[in-house]
Amino acid sequence: MKIGIVSDTHGRVQAVDTMLKIAEPVDLWLHAGDVAEDAEYLARMTGVKTLGVLGNCDWPDGKTPLTRVVEAGGHRIFLAHGHASGIPYTTKFLREEAAFAKADIIVFGHSHQALIRKEENMLLLNPGSLAKPRDGYQGSFMILTLTEGTEPSVEILRLPDKIDR
Q1: Nearest alpha carbon to residue 114 among 90, 88, 96, 145
Q2: Nearest residue to 111 via CA among 150, 81, 139
Q3: Each residue of 54-78: pLDDT tens digit?
Q4: What is the CA radius of gyration of the chain?
Q5: Model confidence over 92-143: pLDDT tens digits?
Q6: Phi first, then psi: what are they for 43, rounded to 5°?
Q7: Which member of 20, 56, 77, 109 has the greatest number of CB atoms within 10 A?
């Protein structure tokens, strides 16, 4: 199963459109917040199931949660923006929430910096920001490949050009 992971698009649908030109086909998209409406746009543009969460720049809409657990490819993924869990200062609280949910993969955003790291038997994934990166590179997103019984494979992809802010 291939999962596209994106975060911190901040209403820049031009960045989403550019991402879709270079992204391989996926079975599912996860949007880690900021801006939740962009997840709806992504779903409309691809026809692929897209699950999102609220970020610190989102207003509660009655349908998008702050966190969610997604079962995919034999794994449990804890999806959150991270702002309510101490990101970017610590992953401790995010890991505790994910452990309570019995998740082995954590997807989050908020820092605008891409990250792939293993901590305490959990894979932490932050796709960075598609529209407003803070890591000195172009906007980024991830492709997560899950095959039951094997280790997850993750690739960070970058947009070819900076997006006008």
Answers
A1: 88
A2: 81
A3: 999 999 989 999 999 999 999 999 9
A4: 14
A5: 999 999 999 999 999 999 999 999 999 989 999 999 999 999 988 899 999 9
A6: -65, -45
A7: 109
Which amino acid is located at 2 in the chain? K
Work out the angle at residue 80's Cα, subtended by the Cα atoms of residues 73 and 49, and round it to the nearest 5 degrees.
50
Instruction: Quote the CA–CA distance of 148 and 146 in Å, as a whole number.
Output: 6
Q: Does domain 2-158 have CATH number 3.60.21.10?
A: yes
Q: Identify the DSSP state of 25.
A: P
- Structural domain spans, the chain: 2-158
pTM of the full structure = 0.94
Query: CA quadruple 84, 153, 36, 138: dihedral positive or negative?
Result: positive
51 phi and psi, to 5 degrees? -115, 135
Closest CA to 18 of 101, 102, 140, 113: 140
162 vs 137, residue with greater confidence: 137
- C-alpha span between 97 and 145 (Å, rounded): 23
Contacts of 127 (CB under 8 A, 6+ apart): 5, 6, 7, 32, 107, 109, 114, 140, 141, 142, 156
Chain-centroid distance of CA 93 in Å reads 18
